[in-house]
Structures are given as structure tokens and as C-alpha cells.
Amino acid sequence: MAEDLVLDTAIRDWVLIPLTVVMILIGVLRYFVSKLMRSQQNPDAKVVREGQVVIRARNLRAGANFIPAKSFRARRAYFSNEENGLLHVPKGQGQNPQAQMFSDPNMAMDMMKKNLSMIIPQTLTFAWVNFFFSGFVAAKIPFPLTQRFRSMLQNGIDLSTVDVSYVSSRSWYFLNLFGLRGLFSLILGEENAMDDTQRMMQMSGFGMDPTKVQT
User: Where are its TM segments located (predicted)?
Assistant: First the structure.
């Protein structure tokens, strides 16, 4: 039978709250550091325009059932007409979007800087948490959970008799690491909290082949 534990308030004051505050501060600091490391360059107008056309075509396909059939056919011809359609690419002239993205050395360098600004703080923070806070039971979930959550919520605690609803300090670190994006969206704004890679994909229509968008 799982045991009920009485959590010391000192664990809340010296483990739970400091971990949460440090993770928030590191996330905000990482955003500003990556912003300083990012090279300032104006995006290619042609690439942005082509990406917006792909997004419009994708939205047309998604909303095809909500507009008259005649209007849909007219818009489809506007995008995919073989003579002058915006999305028509002659055979042999199409370029792989991934190759187009990574052909720019500045973009590849920005992505590498972004990855470094994420990996280094996470590595140092995990080493700090593992050294100072390993083995603490930091919190308790206010509702029952199944045994499948034990490995996720009790990382670093090898006691099968402890109820699954208790959260270890190391697991609390991982929960903050992957669950604070909503808070960063409130602090930094939704656009700033978005990952740089996702922003570039959205801007350039990455992952969409114009030859496959034609319907």
C-alpha cells in the first residue's frame, strides 16, 4: 500500500519555489541571449511571398467545403493553372524546401546558435538540480494517478511504496522545462515564445512542396 507523506514546508521554500523561479529566469534570459546572438538580416521578399502563397493554398484546401464549388474551382485555377498558376512549377525546376532552407549559411548559423543557447543552459541547470536537489519529494498532485506516471513524476526516487501523486525534485525540473511555454507566451508574447525554427518554417511555408499543393 502506498504511503502518505507529510511534506516539510522548508522543501517548498528551498526546493520547489527556487526551482520554479530559476527555470523561469533561465527561460527569459535564454530568449534575450538568443536574440542578441541572432544575426539581423532582411528576409528575401521572393521567399516570403512564395511561402505566403503556399499558406493561402493550404487554407483554401482546408476550407474547400465552406465555399461554393464554383468559387473553389476558380481559386484552384488561380493557384494551380499549368500556364500561369502561382503554384505551377515546371518539371526539373522545383527545389527541395529543406535544401532551400539550409543553403543559406546565415540561417544555418542562426539555428546552430539557437541550439547552443538551449543546450548549454539546460545542461548546466540539470547538473545544478542533480547536485543540490536530488532525492527530494517536492510536491504532491491533488488527484490520484495510475502507476504509469511513476517514472515521469518520481525520477530519482526508487521507492515503490510512495504514492504516485508525489513529485520528485528532478521530475519537477522536467515538468517546468517542458511546461512553461504558456507562461513564456504571457511574459514574452506568443510570437517571441515561438521557437525560431518554427517561425522560419511558418514564414517560408517550409515543409510544403508547391507541386503537391495543387489540387
Answer: 14-33, 119-143
Residue range of the domain that includes 29? 9-37+102-204
Q: Is residue 142 part of a domain?
A: yes
Which of 76, 94, 112 is the last residue before a domain boundary?
A: 94
Please state the domain count of the chain. 2
This model's pTM is above 0.85:
no
* b/e 173-211 (16+ beta carbons within 10 angstroms → b): bbbbbeebeebbeeebeeeebeebeeebbeebbbebebe
Q: Which residue shows C-alpha cell 539581423?
A: 40
Cell numbers for 188: 514574452
Distance CA 187, CA 191 (A): 11
Same structural domain, 184 and 148: yes
pLDDT in tens, 175-192: 998 888 888 888 887 666
Q: Do 31 and 54 fall into the same domain?
A: no
CA angle 86, 90, 91 (to 5 degrees): 145
